Amino acid sequence: MNNLIKGEKYDWEMVIGLEIHAQVKSNSKLFSSSSTKFGSSPNSQVSLVDAAMPGMLPVINKYCVEQAVKTGVGLNAKINNYSVFDRKNYFYADLPQGYQISQYKYPIVGEGKVTIDFKDGTSKDIRIVRLHLEQDAGKSLHDQNPSKTYVDLNRSGVALMEIVSEPDIRTPDEAGMYISKIRSILMYLDTCDGNMQEGSLRADVNISVRKPGDEYGTRCEIKNLNSIKFIKQAINYEAKRQIEILESGGSIEQNTMLFNTSTGKTRPMRNKEEAHDYRYFPDPDLLPLEISKEEIGKIKSSIPELPDELKNKFIETYKLSNYDASVLTAEKQTSDYFNETINSDPELKNHAKIVVNWITSELFSLLNKNNQDLNNSPVSPENLGQLIKLISTNEISGKIAKDVLEDMFSSGKTARQIVDEKGLQQVTDQGEIAKVIDEVIAENPKMVEQYLAGKDKLLGFFVGQAMKLTKGKANPKMLNDILKQKLNKKN
Amino acid sequence: MPKSSLKQTLKDLETKKISIRELNQDYLKRIKENENLNVFIHFSEENVLKQIDNLENNNSEKKLKGIPIAIKDLFCTKNMPTTAASKILENFHPTYESFVTQKLLDEGSIFVGKTNLDEFAMGSATNTSFFGNTINPLSKENEPLAPGGSSGGSAAAVAADLCLGATGTDTGGSIRQPASFCGVVGIKPTYGLCSRWGIAAFASSLDQAGIFSHNVEDASILLKSIAGFDQRDSTSAKVDIPNYFENLDDDLNGKTVGIPKEYSIDGTPMEISQIWEDAIKVLEKKGVKIKNISLPHTKYALPTYYIIAPAEASSNLARYDGVKYGFRSEEIDSLDEMYENTRAQGFGREVKRRILIGTYVLSAGYYDAYYLKAQKVRKLIADDFNKAFKECDFIVTPTAPSAAFPLNEKQNDPIKMYLNDVFTVPASLAGLPGISIPFGKDKNNLPLGIQILGKHFDEQQVFNAAVSLERSYE
């Protein structure tokens, strides 16, 4: 695959690494018992610890630790029996302690990898450097008052997992697929709700460009991107910016950048000289985190089937392609829906590919059009299964089925109800079909002549006419066969 | 002046020889007579009277019911402001009660006030306080002496008999050194014995609450009251707290005392060496085996301490930024300016000095050479003690290199001031329990202190040795 992008003078390769910040799914914060509920009124979920009152001390939330270990297992990563919480020191109004408790030298999770799957059936591993636990900061509100900034500490102290990748990513699409895959794994594990709009999952992107085969170039870091679309946009813009500089003989400054979502441009936030010296050191208020092999084993055994396992199972059981299986397993709700659909009738197991298509193209496009989510789809898996069964037993044609699905979607009726009410059963009576064909042939003598003279394309015209007469209900295969038979007889 | 003891007072209260009100009126009177000592940052007679009222209406049995206690103003208290002797917390009223003070309240004690200290406990003379110096009650007229520090207010409160006991905190000697200077008993227990929850932090890995009292018995009673596990402090220890007082045993026959040769430091005044020898002789007479031990890394303790403590302080004090509570400068045009002016105006010189030192030793490029190395040395110092304690039951040393010095001496020489901690800092770094008891006088008739160090969580042995020395000295 050619992943290069063209500059004015040369071809360039992007080198991309992601730092994903995933909010740990947990009712309380990493070091306090305050609630983590999203969207509560400002400063309503702030304990004395979160507000950094004098003499207040952090106490680790064991559940968040388990969630991190679980995630580490899901990322095929090494779980460290010993890890340390460090203080990352800097001043900001929404950082009440004046430091963030994070993990620096000894993270809870070490090296791992995730696999991304391409449409052409190939896949690629992206290596994970580490995962560590840290506190989120609060929120500065600059738009409440013309001369004042307000601070909301509800988010202060909420547990985050920072997942750092190796610079193994080469295109914006790969970056998108990578974060989708991480999101998918986290959601299967139930360790993060994956909600990017609410900021539960966001990423910093490190990007540099180089000529193929060269050493890594100087990178810039784009901070705090909260959608896959923005990640791709930001990468594209930033790569072009860097290429332009390099091709005009300049050099890249190692900057931290911000992405403006309305202009689609990146701009520097601070350069290397202005970079903070965070003065990391082990937090003396907390003991090192020690997790025994037994505890890790216990957590491992509690882990549900993950997308890659499920994908392989689907390939094996239903003979699906790698890509189809990966689309099905990208989100837990999709694989759950597929499972329920295909298990709703024993017959359907032999038509897995059809089931996949009906879910991932027909149903998805209806959901999309109506801005709805598979989780609350008006068409239940059982009903979709029934519809597919009607197709596979030739009761209705695929074309009619599309209309039926739309009807099901808006009316909530079952496929059977709609087909019966509207009399949409396929016509499979040979005599009836032959009668219609005779009619069509009789009415279009000129066309028949042309067809017989070698204009094969006209076959479609006859099919169309015949379908029209049967209101689309004729079995297409039978119609085709009989039509050909009859026309050829004329010859 | 003969001072009443906590133990005796509890008896007198029980036998109704004296009432809670009478007892505390007596202390209130003395507190008001001694205002010139500047012992308290916060004192409210009204508040004390209210506490007396409440206790009089309370029939439940409590171990310290009615006992007047002074609280170092580093402990957060609900009913009194908490300042850490800093302008930056000048008007801070906590909504919560520290673990230690809550325990004392639960036992029925009466808080007479919040005592003065060095700002954020950084100092050895109680002269860095935003609220002015505390004067050592043992000073002669026109010759004010420092009470030591940082818990100088608490030590002075006990010495002037303004309470029957006081809380302190000890990070590098802040209980033991002022106890020595004021001629009272001061114990810093093992790190982790008393929860740090609700104590404004100076250096988290070293800070430990402790007790000042008139004598060892009283200290043993009070320490039991403030010790215990607290799940809100991750470094709090889950250990059984013995009844130190009931278990007190001054028979040391057969025990071994360690005498570390590294504590004989050139330039130590004769009088200090003399009381150390005297103490050893007394112990020998009591059948204690004298064992010369070596703590080879002692000489690195002070520099190690003055890297680790400021490093932690520089981070612990970052929360005082003017955003959420406490002092905020008026002159602010930007966020950065708010930080700069608030902290420039809110902190005193010594605190700023230590924040700068701490920031420096943690900086990129210096971390390995200073902080990391200091951590390694700290481990070696702890190992020294572990080895030594295989050969002895407790260790005896002087508490401080001098008696109380004049108030304004060393004010402008931080290094000289830091040397005050030379005998107390090693045990702090190792997290060991240590007590200072008055033992002998210098040529000006000022008290000197002997320090007894014990194994981790072996406060009982420390108390036993201390009570034995105390009884033989009296």
Can you walk me through this structure?
- The complex is a heterodimer of chains A (491) and B (474).
- Chain A is of the alpha+beta class and 491 residues long.
- Chain A folds into 3 domains: 5-299, no CATH class; 307-422, no CATH class; 430-490, Arc Repressor Mutant, subunit A.
- Chain A is built from 15 helices and 16 strands.
- Chain A has helices at 62-74, 172-189, 228-247, 293-301, 307-318, 322-329, 332-342, 352-369, 381-392, 398-411, 415-422, 430-443, 445-452, 459-469, 476-490; strands at 5-6, 11-23, 82-83, 86-89, 99-102, 112-117, 123-135, 139-141, 150-152, 159-165, 201-210, 220-225, 255-260, 265-271, 281-282, 289-290.
- In chain A, strands 1, 2, 6, 7, 10, 11, 12, 13 and 14 form a 9-stranded mixed beta sheet that branches. A 3-stranded antiparallel beta sheet of chain A has the order 5-4-15, with no helix packed on it. Chain A has a two-stranded antiparallel ribbon with strand order 3-16.
- In chain A, strand 8 and strand 9 (150-152) form a beta hairpin.
- In chain A, helix 5 (307-318) crosses helix 6 (322-329) and helix 12 (430-443) packs across helix 14.
- The longest helix of chain A has 20 residues, at 228-247.
- Chain B is α/β, with parallel strands linked by helices.
- Chain B has 2 domains: 6-252 and 397-473, Amidase signature (AS) domain (Amidase signature (AS) enzymes), CATH 3.90.1300; 302-372, no CATH class.
- Chain B contains 16 helices and 11 strands.
- Chain B has an 11-stranded mixed beta sheet with strand order 1-3-2-4-6-5-10-11-9-7-8, with helices on both faces.
- In chain B, helix 10 (301-316) packs across helix 12 and helix 10 (301-316) packs across helix 13.
- Chain B is globular and about 70 Å long.
- The interface between A and B is large, with 30 and 43 residues.
